[in-house]
Specification:
homodimer; 314 residues; alpha/beta; Rossmann fold; 2 domains; seven-stranded parallel beta sheet; five-stranded parallel beta sheet; 10 helices; 12 strands; D-isomer_DH_NAD-bd (chains A, B); D-2-hydroxyacid dehydrogenase (chains A, B)
Chain lengths: 314, 314
């Protein structure tokens, strides 16, 4: 018997779709992981952060964890690996909202939208300085599915894109590809430095003060990957000292961002509460991937989508 | 002798470029049209609004008006036509900043940027609803150079574009083309109604209350063309009654928008002070077109760029 526990709320419409399509499966729409230990759960569908090592130990029948997010760094990956539990995510569904968010922030800054909104509040009719995106250059850290979609859209706006990955191999949406070792020498030419890197041991704290010193004073630094790419104090200092012009952050060392953080008050920092991947279509898309994988699971035939290698962490 | 009067300020660098490149021409960098009557001006380079009928009568040697904007509706076109004075504009240079502005506003609304900024001011970490641009539909009134660039970019985001023009003929950047007569029947399916129509007798007040009643309640109406497309009271009513979700206006019946206008206070209206075409590169690009045309003028050979038919008004 396949016992599926879904630990986040989903609409009645989607519940009916699942139960109708898979009558041989028992679905538990608990909206929570509480009491999961008593339920003989074989398949866990979760946003990820609720699956602690402690709960994992109780789930002795668990065979598959489907994470409805892209990052899996909060999962007890080592324990899951030891027990050879299948881990899948939904990384493909983030690329559209995330790329749209990145472009929204870049264009909004270029076209002075925050100032337009401010002036409207005060009923001030005054022309302001604005610039163009066309002809600029972007360095994209993590040119995978999400980074590639960002690159593709930037190219449509006439931006030259440089993808930066471990291997430096060729990626879609990039005019050029370099490896991490060559970041430093290319930073001085980038107008936008955009990270969508996941959190892995290799990408942790890879940017430091020396990197920001190499950036253009007019550069915009954007972190939409994970908060452990660079220390918050390094970003704060870079913004306060004018090493760069602006920063747009959707991820932070500590989330929610503590009220004490100086980032909140910096005029040249946009604090986005980790929402760039969200979308009204999110759950629908996540469930589509789940349904495809569930079919493979039940048929014991075919290939799973979005399998995570627990050792690599992505 | 070719006497050129430039009535707006341009940088020293550009002045030197002009005088160096055209030693046979006399340039008057007055930053103003005042006293032009005494200067035997043959070529007038202006943003347009300073050339009144009165001044035009004084400029008896005038042969060419180069307007450094796209709209020529404020020019005394009839008088210019009678005297067979050449009129050229710089319409090509607006498409990049304008299309970037339109996309900036659309993406900003979709990705909830105004709310993100508001929450930051109050140090509030809270997820908000946001949607995706992909899969939506746009109706573009005026699918010329600017509309086509908007269409091309929207298509890159997976938006279906319908161009709406007098003729309904095929235009770049459009998935479909219709004529003005068919607007009404296609309004109910559009998520975005974007006008970049110039002001001509044919396009004046072509939208009225009946059109807004046909729009989706979730639709966004954007006017980036001219303020005489639709009466302000019609937009105000549509926004107040929720006939549409939002409006982004860069042009108005009266500019500057009077402080009394209810548009300033409407939460579902973005008031942009006619800045969508501006860009740090504006003057540079305008002068490039001027220099090309000046070469044609002096050589008395070749074809002028961006010639305005004074009778049609574009």
């Amino acid at each position: 018997m396949t016992n599926v526990l879904i630990t986040f709320p989903i609409k009645e419409k989607f519940r009916q779709e699942l139960t109708g399509k898979f009558p041989q499966v028992h679905f538990d729409f608990s909206d929570s992981i509480e009491g999961a230990g008593d339920k003989k759960v074989t398949v866990l569908v979760t946003y990820g952060s609720d699956l602690t090592e402690e709960i994992l130990e109780q789930l002795t029948d668990l065979k598959w964890v489907m994470v409805a997010s892209a990052g899996v760094d909060k999962l007890p990956l080592e324990k899951l690996g030891e027990r050879a539990i299948l881990v899948t995510n939904v990384s493909g569904i983030h690329k559209t909202p995330m790329a749209e968010s990145v472009l929204a922030h870049i264009l909004s800054l270029n076209r002075a939208l925050p100032l337009i909104h401010e002036q409207q509040k005060q009923k001030v009719w005054e022309k302001m300085k604005s610039s163009e995106l066309r002809g600029s250059k972007a360095l994209i850290l993590g040119p995978g599915a999400i980074g590639g979609e960002i690159g593709r859209l930037l190219q449509a706006f006439g931006v030259y894109t440089i993808g930066c990955s471990r291997s430096g191999s060729v990626h879609d949406g990039m005019d050029e590809d370099i490896s991490f070792e060559h970041i430093t020498e290319r930073l001085p030419e980038a107008d936008y430095i955009i990270s969508v890197l996941p959190s892995t041991p290799e990408t942790r704290w890879i940017l430091d003060r020396s990197h920001f010193q190499r950036m253009k004073k007019t550069a915009v630094f954007m972190n939409f990957g994970r908060g452990d790419l660079v220390k918050e104090e390094v970003i704060v200092e870079a913004l306060q000292q004018g090493l760069i012009a602006h920063s747009v952050l959707d991820v932070f060392e500590q989330e929610p961002l503590p009220v004490e953080s100086p980032l909140w008050d910096l005029e040249n920092c946009t604090v986005s509460p980790h929402v760039s991947a969200l979308s009204a279509k999110y759950v629908e898309r996540a469930l589509e991937i789940f349904k495809e994988n569930l079919q493979v699971w039940l048929a014991e035939n075919g290939e799973f989508k979005n399998v995570i290698e627990t050792k690599r962490g992505y």
